[in-house]
Amino acid sequence: MTALDELTRPAGDDDVVGGVPARLVAAPRDTAEASALLAATQDLTVVIRGAGTKLDWGPPPRALDLIIDTRHLAGVVEHAAGDLITIVRAGTPLGSLDLGEQLLALDGPAGATVGGTVATATSGPRRLHYGGVRDLLIGITVVRADGKVAKAGGKVVKNVAGYDLGKLYTGSYGTLGLITECAFRLHPRPQHALFVRAVAPPAEAARIRAAAIAPTAVEIDSATGELAVLIEGTPDGVRERADLLAKLLNADISDKSPEWWGADPWAPGGIGVKLSVPLSAVPTLAAGPDAVRGSAGTGVLYAAAAGITEVERLRAACVRLGGHAVVLTAPPDVRDILDMWGPTPGLPLMRRIKDQFDPGHRFAPGRFVGGI
C-alpha cells in the first residue's frame, strides 16, 4: 500500500476551498508522513487547511485534487524557557498554547492555527509592541513540493541561518509548500493590562507616541470614533501610564477591550479589505467615506466594502497616500471579476520563486498574487 492509499480519504461535502471541491483529504501526523505523502502525490494539486478560519481568503484555486489537513500536526515540540523560544507544530491552535509565564504575542481569530497565521502573515493589535509574524518567527520546517524536508533558522535567537526561508513562507498563502513546524521568539507574560479608551481623532496617536507611554497597541474604529490604547506591564507601572494617558486624552480606563478590538469589520460572506498606509496618512484615511478599523500605530487597517466601487475607492485612496490595499475575502460574484491583490511590485521575482520552490505549480494554484 502506498503513502497515498494509507494517508488519504475521499473528500466530503465540506472539503471545499473557494467553491472548488477536493477529491481527496489527508491529515499527516508528523513531518515524515507529510514528506511521504507529497512525494507520492506529484501529479496532484494541493491546498493546505488548518482550522479554516482564513480559508476563504484569496481567489479560489484553479484546481484542487488534495486538501492537506494539519489538525494532527499539533502540539509544542519544545519550550526553551531560558532562551525565550518555543517550537510548535503548524496545526496547533494559537489559543491552546500554554507557555506559563511566557507568551507568543500573535493575535488571530478564534481557533486560528500557527501554520495558518504564518502562511497569511496575520498580525493583530499587539504587533505595534511585539512585532509581526516575520519578527517573531526565527525558524521553520517545511515540506517542499517534491516531498523533501527543508529547515531554516534555529531555536537560538542569534542563529539567523536560513532566516530568509522563514520570510519567504510567511505570507505565501500555502503556495510554496507545507509548513510543519515553527520556532518563535517569546516574551515574558505581562503582569497587568489596562485599556485607555476615548472618543478622539486618530491624529491623537501622534501625541501618544510623543508622551512616551510605550503602548502595546493603539487601535482606532472610525465607525464609532473611538481610539483605544492597550498598556501592559507591572501593576504600578501600568496604572501610572494609564492615568497619564487618560488625562492627556480626557479618556476612560478599563480592564476590558472594546467590542470591536481585533475583530474584522466585515460580516461573514462580505468583502474584507486590508489597508496599509504610512502612519502620517492614517488620519486622512480614517476621515474618508469608508469606515476603517485597525492600528493607528502601524498603519495597518481593515475595512468592509459594499461592492467593487468601494473597493476601488479604498485602493485608490491608499495608493494616493503611499500605501496599498488587498481584498482578503469576497463573495464569489465579486471575487470572480475583481483583482483581489491589486498591483504588486516585484511580481516577476515572485514568479521565479514560485517556479523554484514549486515547479509544477501544485500548491494552491491561482491563490496568490498574479495568479501564482
TrEMBL record:
Source organism, top-level taxon: Bacteria
Transmembrane segments: none
Ranges for domain FAD-binding PCMH-type: 17-189
One of the record's GO molecular function terms: catalytic activity
Keywords tagged on the record: FAD, Flavoprotein
Residue ranges of coiled coil: none
PANTHER family (alphabetical): D-LACTATE DEHYDROGENASE (PTHR11748), GLYCOLATE OXIDASE SUBUNIT GLCE (PTHR11748:SF103)
Listed name of the protein: Glycolate oxidase
Organism: Paractinoplanes tereljensis
Recorded name of the encoding gene: glcE_1
